[in-house]
TrEMBL record:
This is Farnesyl pyrophosphate synthase. The keyword DNA-binding does not apply. The lineage of its organism: Eukaryota, Viridiplantae, Streptophyta, Embryophyta, Tracheophyta. One of its GO terms (biological process) is farnesyl diphosphate biosynthetic process. Belongs to the FPP/GGPP synthase family. InterPro entries: FPS1-like, Isoprenoid_synthase_dom_sf, Polyprenyl_synt.
Length: 389
């Protein structure tokens, strides 16, 4: 088996892992970081520190701990597979979801010292976000028969992987529960953290199911696609895990109760719908060399923002073209769909939608009373507004 590495770490053999992990038994510190430095147990994270660099360094430790997990009698070959699989799928993205936990936590803790231990725990949940994302992308690529992800071939498309990648996706999801139990079971908010992550995982799976059912029904009758159905899919498939989960996790780390932040949740869910509409637009119109992915929503018969808008604007002839060509794999059919999109000026319609969504979100954010919550929401909106990938 060849051993490829991804940004953030390299494959470590089981013997080396056992030696490294003798240095710590699950407590956040003292522990030797991947940089070789030993953080002080009660040290304070300095202001102006390179938080992203610190976050990235935690990856190696978590990956190594999971590979060395003794809950199952894995062979050396199996451990090498797990290490390679994690390295291929978890790091290498933009890390926006993981860093959202860090950024949100630090904004909520403004005016208070953040210890090394506290920052490490935020990093653990941040990497749980990246594990969640990796699981979602890996399984989604299989279901969509995608070819590329993050500028390279999808994991399941590698000849030695194939549909065994399904089990790898399940394993990534199990890793999250393992990490949360290891690092938070003694915390007073452990139950809240566990229930949050379990609940969002269920919502995301339901969202994926709604997407698959909608795609199947739309394949028989394209006009079954509607804006209401689209928003329902996005709310559960994308919004809760990509936008609400990182902020809710940060809130729980500070000891807050999520029941007091329903307004924040609603804004983040709305932001997720805006984000997914962007994703759908980029899938069709963006340069794959910029996004790192070849868009396949048209070929996959997806209930996307673009097709929903097109159906609402098209005349009888254009609807007939869409009915005959949408969901077809051949380049001629895809070109006809894109030509119809252009004739309907979906680029212009999307630009108007984006301006309107942005203004509505700004108004909702300004209505929030908590300054820290406002800053969190503003930071999210700034990251996604008019994004190109």
């Amino acid at each position: 088996m060849s051993h490829e590495t991804a940004p953030g770490g390299s494959v470590t053999l089981a013997g080396e892992l056992e030696e490294k992990l003798l240095l710590h038994d699950g407590a956040p510190s003292p522990a030797k970081c991947s940089s070789g430095a030993v953080p002080q147990k009660r040290g304070v994270v300095p202001e102006g520190a390179d938080y992203r660099e610190r976050f990235v360094k935690v990856y190696d430790r978590l990956r190594d701990e999971l590979v060395a997990d003794d809950s199952c009698e894995l062979t050396d070959e199996a451990r090498r597979w797990v290490a390679q699989m994690i390295d291929y799928n978890v790091p290498g993205g933009k890390l926006n979801r993981g860093m959202s936990v860090i950024d949100s936590y630090l904004l909520l803790k403004q005016g208070s010292e953040v210890t090394e231990d506290e920052f490490f725990l935020a990093c653990v949940l941040g990497w749980c976000m990246e594990w969640f994302q990796a699981c979602a992308l890996l399984l989604d690529d299989i279901m969509d028969d995608s070819h590329t992800r993050r500028d390279r071939i999808c994991w399941y498309k590698r000849p030695e992987v194939g549909l065994a990648g399904i089990n790898d996706g399940i394993l990534l999801k199990c890793h999250i529960a393992r990490l949360i139990k290891k690092y938070f079971r003694e915390k007073p908010y452990y139950t809240d953290i566990a229930e949050l992550w379990t609940g969002v995982a269920l919502q995301t799976s339901h969202g994926q199911m709604l997407d698959l059912i909608s795609t199947r029904n739309g394949a028989h009758n394209l006009t079954k696609y509607s804006i209401e159905g689209y928003q329902r899919i996005v709310k559960y498939k994308t919004s809760y895990y990509s936008f609400y989960l990182p902020v809710a996790s940060a809130l729980l780390l500070t000891g807050a109760k999520l029941d007091n932040f329903s307004g924040l949740r609603d804004i983040l869910v709305e932001m997720g719908v805006y984000f997914q509409a962007q994703d759908d637009y980029l899938d069709c119109f963006a340069d794959p060399s910029t996004t790192g992915k070849i868009g396949t929503d048209i070929e996959d018969h997806k209930c996307s923002w673009l097709i929903v808008q097109a159906l609402g604007q098209a005349d009888c002839n254009q609807i007939e073209v869409l009915q005959n060509c949408y969901g077809k794999k051949d380049s001629s059919s895809v070109s006809k769909v894109k030509s119809t999109y252009s004739a309907l000026d979906l680029k212009g319609i999307f630009s108007e939608f984006e301006d309107r969504a942005y203004k509505n979100l700004v108004a909702s954010i300004e209505a929030q009373q908590d300054p820290a919550v406002q800053e969190i929401l503003k930071s999210f909106l700034k990251k996604i507004h008019r994004r190109k990938k």
